[in-house]
Specification:
293 residues; alpha/beta; Rossmann fold; 12 helices
Length: 293
Amino acid sequence: MKRLIPISCIALILLSVFVGFKPMSVNVFNYLLWKVCSSTSVETGNIEYQGAKIHYVAYGQGEPLLLLHGGLSNKFSWFSQIPWLVSAGRKVILIDTRGHGYSTHGHAKLSYQVFAEDTLQVLDKLGIGRTDIVGWSDGGIIGLLLGLEAPERVGKIVAISANFHPSGVILEVDSQQYQSYNSFFTALRHWFHGVWSGAGAHHQALEAELNELWRTEPQLQPTELYAITAPTLVVTGEHDIIDLKHSSELAQKLAHGQLEVIDEAGHAAPITHAQEINQLIAKFLMIDLNTLN
């Protein structure tokens, strides 16, 4: 006969996880509570473009704010930002990038150009002519590209852990991180990343395609960066996989760029250092800081 794990042990394990991962666990709980209890208006749907179904969700009313997640992630990665931004009176739009979350891959080869075109298609569907953008990693790159190619559609940009050239990625840190995962937690890593990206069993194929993209893109030239006229806040972590010098150069080459470095943060600052990220977003976008409390 199998021995059942006592409920008290399960509760203790869950409690330990909750406490051990604070404040991230608290933010997840608050987000789920907000989802269940909030009376905020929700608009959800899909657009069809280049053979793909691109999924989006829009919460609330007010001045639009587009949140673009990073590669191998999904729109849920903004769980620490969504509730307070909506409470602050912004219409928050979230998109699952092509091949991620509830969005399908389609027949187009993945590129930042295609991602940007997908994004504009969603904004058109929602009737949004102009929006502020907060982008993380790949999402930040998409935000910069939109600022270059569709300046009339962009207000302000917050680019978190974004690079403008592949040389900005610190390969040593990235490879050591993945070597550690491959040595000790291969199966767990594949399962978690499959869930986190939303690609499931297709995650490894998606990861391989994105790794190739990251080796070759983006390729934004200094003249193109200076042509981005939207006020842009470049945010990076002290221990980010994006080289600090590269982030500083990005902020300097933009027409209206400024740099903020988050102490002790890595590449996942919107999750691990949400309070600092939220404060920077609020200050830059002139959102009442009281809505963070």
